[in-house]
Write a structure and sequence with these properties.
Chains A, B, C, D: This is Chorismate synthase. The structure is a homotetramer. Chain A is built from seven helices and 18 strands. In chain A, the strands form six sheets. Chain A has a five-stranded antiparallel beta sheet, with helices on one face. A five-stranded antiparallel beta sheet of chain A has the order 9-8-10-16-11. In chain A, helix 3 crosses helix 7 and helix 5 packs antiparallel against helix 7. Chains C and D meet through strand 1, helix 2, helix 5, strand 11 and helix 6 of C and strand 1, helix 2, helix 5, strand 11 and helix 6 of D.
């Protein structure tokens, strides 16, 4: 109920803070027989890790994963997969000047009001560092989906007002911002570096597509596949919106324009983003995720202290100028976990 | 796991199909001592019921609620509140010509693939009729929030490309489309009636604001208030997108523009829509919901049959030309249920 | 979290009080394609209903079930099965003299302390009347298990110190107490009638055996099949103990005596009651359930009032002299629900 | 759903196998502000650890706990408490001769049937080593209950046919078997050592009493406090039965004998074991737990191999002659976790 778990059958539970001993994840409900090794998991973590390029935070964490349980002789055993990542590049002193004030846009005030207390070092549990645990858990899901011929690709389609015009999946990992449009990617990088210089940050949109998803995934009422994907995405730090298929754009369409006609050899269009009545229809699942600009900026800002007084302050820690960049593998992981969960749940539908 | 329940502490579970005996809801985890009577619940249902005006479906259901349990001497007792609504205006024969084909945009195909079987009468469980059960359950939540000085208002802010320019809450229930802009409301009504004549349908956006929500609601990681609201909204029929606060618009902003500055006497802005780090910050909670055009249109359409053959068909049942109109009280109900749930969950945060 | 639901995949949620409008159940997660009709469900309810013989309470409820949803053309559809039973033979005035005192052995005091409030009419939600809803839900589970060649039989093996010496399943429904020993059954009946005359009550033990359960059901750690069965049984009114296989008796055995030796053609013994490490081993599942004497007796008793004063009182309502008799079909239902749930959960164990 | 979690609000999730890298636990839903340090947690683990005396297994694990998260400046922060214990004294080679056969009384066969696969080293996940993770989590619960003046004491009341005659809590930690009867404790020790010599094992009964529990804990229907305690206890390795208060003995009583009379200054008796209608009544909670003899004995035994052939074999690993001894702190931990969970849940009962 405290919300550190996600999924019903394939369930991940995470723990850990940005500046504590480390973070970790338990994957419970993982089917036995999935071939998975530590190198594969690590390769997923490397795509998310800080310090990987000059457009992300310089905090230099290797994010090395330690496998604690649930894998034997190269396969999952059916028992919980436990994984731990130690924090190694911690500079908690950067936060000393922040411990008595509430940074705007951050969870400082809300945690304080909730727990009467907060671990102020690097945002504590509210840090996006927690998402490394999701990526580790998502790697197992990814392998399971691979066995079932489902593939997932996420990528950055906008940074501020700069928007990708193409969806060339082959270039995603060839640029630092994970954009499927090589030309636009360069503009995004330049823009982010300029903002970094300026001490500011910028928002962005991540799109994710799952292909090969069979029809029939998702539960009809509250646990619609679309509803669970929405929750999955909004649970990621800094996410403020989500849409499935045409999303907000379809509110301007007529039914006669928006209905995806079925022909004997398949759908003519995919306005629905692969989900009808909350259940996958065999088309690609298409989701877009709105990510706000990072709240940590190196500009003088006004706020209030724990005692309610006005104060001006400046953030000196290490931060991402565009958190949407590193959100890409996290969005993939959450898509993978949600699909794996519903893939397994679907097995219980027939007598 | 089959997803007919929503909420962790304050939990509703619904049942029922569009053309079966009836529908209903159980509210489990309802605190004792909430003053609530059947007239109040009925008044909420009346705002959602079909046949209430010429811009909604003419199916004429009174949606009369029968209280089965959990209320004694005018107050909730702490035990589950059971409520039943019988279906009375059923015309199942309207669906005879549809039982062997998959209507585009509907859940026909996805239910068929999921269950190997479907109740084709009026979309069965996939019908938005199910949302009446949510409104009944939401009425209890609404009363609880009232006791805690929290108010919720939802309203229609766009129909197709026609968009409200004002937020005058006093006019919402004075027009048939529940728009907070009286002038625009008239245009919306005219447009919807024209489309109805044409046999087509149109999408729309519903906005909902919760005021008086204390800081501290929402769980930090997966059960962020924003994540649970997103799930709540996407679980409503025809919803394809959701955003909190500025939502997708904030992806074009810099951190220095998007951070809501705190002053000793409150926030200067509310870009965040009242939620930071997944937890309410005391500001108004603001959510927008994208609703697609109804899939049922009275135009000739092409599709495939259960046997995979091509077919042209025409829908003759009774339908809403703009489902967003009747979604307004459903969005309110889901907001009320989600907030009540997190209000109660919040009681467990401190030792 | 308020505990009106049981099961993870195959989940029942019940509502209703003894003297309100009625009771009911929603079965969510019910697989599609189970052949089930209202007569079958009613036949199960008839085995539990009050007024069926002179050894049970004379309250004369027909317990007629109304099917609300989830069944179409004689089969479950995969959507929730909703069922309602109206209360018809209510004599609430019998409870007027009890509303300000706490009957010993009853839940009066505990409900009062919990909710600050109670529905004093016939024990309200604490009444065993709630178990009719379980039996209705259990009937669906029973049909599912039948399809999978699993059979369940519960029966009364002791009333006070009178204990069955045989397990002749063919006679269970041929005597009023549902004892598998025809001769002992007569003694039990006589004893119960004598106690009824006296205005007293007596405890008993129900045993239940499930045959045909495949190996592999149950989750390894907290959701052991044995643990979930224990919870299922202890959730039934008046149950104070449970044991699996040899249960308490095995605490006096050595490992060399208690281990069930496996031979190529099967187990030599079944001390374990069909469960090893929390998982079914293919042997019969054997569970025994201890049921206390009904707290409602027609003798003068001492207790305290809501105001804390001492008082002597006498109960005049209609009650069972031996609640263990009518618990038999409830124990069967809870076994059926638990096994169906784990049967479905088991489908998610392999990649 | 895979059952590695326990509790609804105060929820522990465990991972780890007997011979893998280690084991661990996440406590989610832990309220903020509980004073707890690593020494306290370690002291609880020391009571359960192997190698502590000659009546338990000689496997010499220090069971040193590593705190990963959720505690800051000596108090819980409200975020998940993560703890890891590495395995250090592993002798996996002891199990080489067992990997192709199914040890009687063990979970070998059931895991194999469930997962098509098993980690044969020291029983893998089925090892009681998992319970160390529960004890670590339970320590946090214990501190919370202490803050609320609730105390828990478990102790061994029988080993085979040797039964404690007294309940002198002061001697529990002064003998190796944790028996509240010093004289009987000696007999138990001698008997266990004799059996150890013989290569056999023996069962036992653990009793646990919780004092200071306020009235009102437990949910009325399926999540009765008694039902959740039954599940908690049956989830512990080797447990085959549980009873509340008089338990099975009350089945031989009349209602007039079994009802606990309330007087203005309290209950006259406690047959109910502190729970009425599934809800605590303010009296001591009393539970007894039946623990079977360990299945690992050093005698020649017959069984079958993975291929179905008959085989005689001998176990050479290190094992407990009476697992009930080390179950005492585990029973305490499960009682503490269950009570803490319901203590928090109870906060949601009133409007």
């Amino acid at each position: 109920m405290a919300g550190s778990s996600f999924g019903e059958v394939f369930k991940i539970t995470t723990f850990g803070e940005s500046h504590g001993a480390g973070i970790g994840v338990i994957v419970d409900g993982c089917p036995s027989g999935i071939p998975v090794d530590i190198e594969y998991i690590q390769s997923k973590l490397d795509r998310r890790r800080p310090g990987q390029s000059d457009v992300v935070t310089p905090r230099n964490e290797k994010d090395q994963v330690h496998l604690m349980s649930g894998i034997f002789q190269g396969h999952t055993t059916g028992t919980p997969v436990g994984m731990v990542i130690y924090n190694t590049d911690v500079r908690s002193q950067d936060y000393n000047n922040l411990k008595d004030l509430f940074r705007p846009g951050h969870a400082d005030y809300t945690y304080y009001k909730k727990y009467g207390f907060r671990d102020y070092r690097g945002s504590g549990r509210a840090s996006a560092r927690e998402t490394a645990a999701r990526v580790a858990g998502g790697a197992i899901a990814m392998k399971f989906l691979e066995m079932n011929n489902i593939t997932i690709n996420a990528y950055l389609i906008s940074v501020g007002k700069i928007k990708a015009q193409k969806r060339d999946l082959s270039v995603i990992d060839q640029n630092k911002v994970r954009c499927p449009d090589a030309e636009i990617a360069k503009k995004m990088e330049e823009y982010i570096l300029a903002l970094k210089e300026e001490g500011d940050s910028i928002g962005g949109v991540v799109e994710v597509i799952a292909s090969g998803v069979p029809a029939g995934l998702g539960e009809p009422v509250f646990d619609k596949l679309s509803a669970d994907l929405a929750k999955a995405m909004l649970s990621i730090n800094a996410v403020k919106g989500v849409e499935i298929g045409d999303g907000f754009a379809c509110t301007e369409l007529k039914g006669s324009e928006n209905n995806d006609v079925m022909l004997p050899d398949g759908y003519m269009t995919n306005h629905a983003g692969g989900i009808l009545g909350g259940i996958s229809n065999g088309n690609d699942i298409v989701v877009r995720v709105a990510i706000k600009p990072a709240s940590s900026i190196k500009k003088d800002q006004n706020t209030v202290t724990v005692d309610g007084g006005a104060v001006e302050f400046n953030i000196t820690g290490r931060h991402d100028p565009c958190v949407a960049v590193r959100a890409v593998p996290v969005v993939e992981a959450m898509m993978a976990i949600t699909l794996t969960d519903h893939f397994l749940r679907r097995r219980c539908n027939l007598a």
